[in-house]
Amino acid sequence: MSNLTSMTEFLLMGFSNTWELQVVHATFFLMIYLMALIGNLIIFTIISLDVHLHTPMYFFLKNLSFLDLCLISVTVPKSIVNSLSHNSSISYLGCVLQLFLVILFAGSEISILTVMSYDRYVAICQPLHYETIMIKGSCVKMAVASWFSGGVVGTMYSASTFSLPFCGSREIHQFFCDVPSLLRISCSEKHIVVYVSVAIGLGLGIFCCIYIITSYVHIFSTVLKIPTTQGRSKAFSTCLPHLIVFIVFIITGAMAYLKPPFDSNTVLDLLLSMFYTVVPPTLNPVIYSLRNKDMKTSINKLIAWKHSSEGLMKFFP
């Protein structure tokens, strides 16, 4: 039996063995990546520059945009290069790092989405106490805790997974290194350590899910009491997209990791992984900027600044 140290590289699976379809895949992924890159960079830049957006809600949105940008950058560019270069290999250390970063950013994103639901809960259900509860220090601590939780889970997942020996096939049935696909090519039948890590991550996800659902139950019950239609519409337009993104993110991620590791490899595995690593980073900029009045106003101000010699003073009052 080969020891894990003898495994110097893995082979990532492509979406097709046909060259023409590989080009189509690379082009499609490149378009998605550019959309996510530009959208999240715009949000991050606008929030950083416009002092009117230096509020708790946009502070967490800024963190979310950065996480989205990092999450999609860990997987998609490598997949594009592999499709166009006829080389699907990834080094052992590269696979370790990729798995760690994917879990780090995905776990941190779940935590940030949970914190964002708390921010909306306080803003809508306890508006008179919002400024005293969501002070800058508290917001920073919650963001740091979100990143830390993602880092802890990422360390556990990568350490436990790569403590297993790998022998035989080097082909990972996925376009990036993830735990279920790596377990399938492990020559160890005992995955207790990995299952413990998955259980801890699952526990964190369940806690976040319950907390978000509870928050939105209170939010929606409060919103329905708002007398004006315009007020209800504004509150729902802010909260519903957030809830939809979280549901897609958490369900697809849970399906991918709770699926028995020794099931046959199917296209469903690739589609599920796309939904929790590619779709949210691409859709979040659209949901949070194009439909957001404050963000559109800031973008217009930035555009006006480019055509005005006094734009800097207008943008930084």
How does this structure look, described?
The chain has 317 residues and is an all-alpha fold. The chain has a single domain, classed as Rhodopsin 7-helix transmembrane proteins (Rhopdopsin 7-helix transmembrane proteins, Up-down Bundle), CATH 1.20.1070.10. Helices cover 74% and strands 3% of the residues. It contains twelve helices and three strands, in the order E-H-H-E-H-H-H-E-H-H-H-H-H-H-H. The chain has helices at 19-49, 56-85, 92-125, 130-133, 136-161, 179-184, 192-223, 229-258, 267-277, 279-290, 293-306, 311-315, and strands at 9-12, 89-91, 171-172. It has a three-stranded mixed β-sheet. Helix 3 packs parallel to helix 7, helix 7 packs antiparallel against helix 8 and helix 8 packs antiparallel against helix 10 (279-290). The chain is globular, with a radius of gyration of 21 Å. One of its GO terms (cellular component) is plasma membrane. Belongs to the G-protein coupled receptor 1 family. The chain crosses the membrane at residues 23-47, 96-118, 139-159, 192-214, 235-258, 270-290. Residues 39-288 form the G-protein coupled receptors family 1 profile domain. This is Olfactory receptor.
